[in-house]
Specification:
There is one protein chain. With about 110 residues, this protein is mostly helical. The chain contains three helices and two strands. Strands 1-2 form a two-stranded antiparallel ribbon. Strand 1 and strand 2 form a beta hairpin. The longest helix is centred in the first third of the chain and has 38 residues.
């Protein structure tokens, strides 16, 4: 079946909208986990409490990979290490990147 170009464009826009919404939901979940981890670190909540254990276990693959770099385990701002600061920076910089590149449309 041959579709009209405007109908194809509408379908493509709907797919783009769904992809954007899925990306935003994933970002919101990951940003929430990072922010909760930051609060736990600032409040000195250990892994012995179930919330700390759960959040630290979720973030451990990323934090363990970053902690291999020399100096990243050192506390910089109170109890926050370079790993924690990098995670917070990613939470802030990701939406800025989306906004910065969101206005360009290839035609």
């Amino acid at each position: 079946m041959i579709q009209h170009p405007q109908a194809r464009r509408r379908v493509q826009e709907q797919r783009s909208q769904v992809a954007l919404e899925v990306l935003l939901v994933l970002y919101a979940v990951l940003a929430t986990i990072v922010l909760i981890r930051t609060v736990l670190v600032l409040l000195h909540i250990s892994e012995r409490i179930w919330v700390g254990s759960f959040i630290y276990r979720l973030t451990s693959p990323v934090t363990d990979a970053l902690a291999v770099v020399p100096g990243f385990r050192r506390a910089l701002l109170g109890p926050l290490t370079m790993v924690d600061i990098i995670l917070l920076a990613l939470v802030v910089l990701f939406p800025l990147g989306i906004v910065a590149t969101g206005g360009r449309v290839a035609r």
